[in-house]
Write a structure and sequence with these properties.
The chain has about 625 residues and is α/β, with parallel strands linked by helices. The protein contains 21 helices and ten strands.
Length: about 625
Amino acid sequence: MTEEKKKRSLAEDLRLITRGFKTMFKISRSGMIWRIVNCIVQQISPYFWLYMSALIIDEIAAGADLKRLLILALITVTGQFVLNIAVHYVGRKTDEAARTMFGRIEYYYFCVNHRMQYKYFEKPDTALMLETIRSSHNYGGWGLMRIYWGSWNIVAATFNIIASTALTFTMLRSVSNASLTGLLAFMNSPWSSIIILLLIAINVFSSLVRTKYFSTKEQKAWKNVEESLSLANCYFNGNGMDERIFNISRFSLARMKSIYVENPALDKAYAASRNSTLISLLFQIILQAGLFIYVAAKAFIGVFGIGSFVLYSGTVGRFVSAVSDLVGQLNMWRVNNEYLKNEFKFIDLPDEMYQGTLSTEKRDDNKYEIEFRNVSFKYPGSENYALKNVNFKFNIGERLAFVGMNGSGKTTFVKLLCRLYDPTEGQILLNGIDITRYDYDQYMALFSVVFQDYAVFAFDIAGNVSASSEPDRDRVLDCLARAGLGERISELENGIDTFITKNYDATGVDFSGGEKQKIAIARALYKDAPFIILDEPTASLDPLAEADIYARFNEIVTDKTAVYISHRLSSCRFCDKIVVFDNGEIIQQGDHETLVADENGKYFELWHAQAQHYV
């Protein structure tokens, strides 16, 4: 148990549990309501049967007439019939909701991911945090999943305690007026009731101590399992061919074996849990035996009839089990709070990016001007500047090339331009106004970017190009043709409905790297944004193939502002302006002929360093 967990107060535990319930109601309000209602309906049924049985037995013992017995029997049968229908109906609705609950939680986290500030995606610990949360859901049922499944136990235990107490409370106060001696006199005195209440208190306290000790011990073992499992899962995210050629899976299999098959800590935790269950059962048996003797003695001395004996015998047993279950569940939830803290830490990752409200006013003439004014930037957690005092202005319709060594600041410049990050210092202006003042979604609509680590997704081509479930099919075909993939698409049996990869469709196609790049470029064209950026998406191609794609792209961007980022200077000779980055600064600007003529410049150095390989 961590020091942080030891210091957690009861108030914080209650706050976490309360927030857990609120979150689950937000995820699936109907699912939570049906589960709670189902639990209550199922708990009512045995109490109804016990109560009606006690009435009938007492009436028989008292010599009631047949008509009254028939009425009671009819009420019992009818009531039980109605309850059975309710149990069946509510149970079916609960099962329907339960089948989708895991998916709803996954969807909730997908939404959290979607609205999360981009900077967290670049942090490895964010991905590990989410993987750990999912492992705790899948393999231990902890976190929000425990709130859902545990809600049944807590509602059932609470209902049973209230119902059984209401039905048996009068028993503790009832005494006989008969003259009694010895043990029977003691059973008829208030002291016997006090001892029963003391036994109940001892059982509650022992349950609290046992559950807290053993459940915490098991939870610690499971936490180690989940953390190890999160790392082990990384081995399954690779390429199947690589796993087989290099036998990488042996690492994963070894990790899994050490977690599940040969894990002494987990075996000890399971043994502790079994011991806890046995001890709990022993305490329950002792308490139930004492209560049964107490009830039997009360019935024997005539405090109540045989019907009430049947009722109390049933209710006291349910009371004892309910108390143990309630204490156990509350302790389990306190253990679960450590998982909830991690989940809420992930959910609450702050969005520090200012969300403006100004409209960008979509213009048919694409008259947008963007200016970097004294912009500097440090990545979170870094003391070094990735960009330093950058000043640059985009002229509408220009073809620009950004060149420079790795780490010189080219991609960082694009990330700031697209508001994936905000500058540490300085301003970026759109038509003279700070871009943070614009509506974020409207501002993002100005840019189409094909990043160097572009992604195509395992669904159909039309969806990949349009990023929509209802694509304009003619427009998709036009963009693919302009990107140089029209002939390839026409050869496919399912055309733009063809799935990329066979992951989810047996008729899918595994496209080559170059074809995937063209699909990504077609997606940039489909968006039809006034600024188009290619951030080294063709780095895996040879220089001639890259130059061909850039030249083709240059022909189709028409009056849009286009930015090309490449290590290969020969691919960008056609651009109006080449911007040279070095160590986070813009050190040169100009066309190719001007820059290559400056023998003391960085561009000259880079150009001749590359040119010698092609001579």
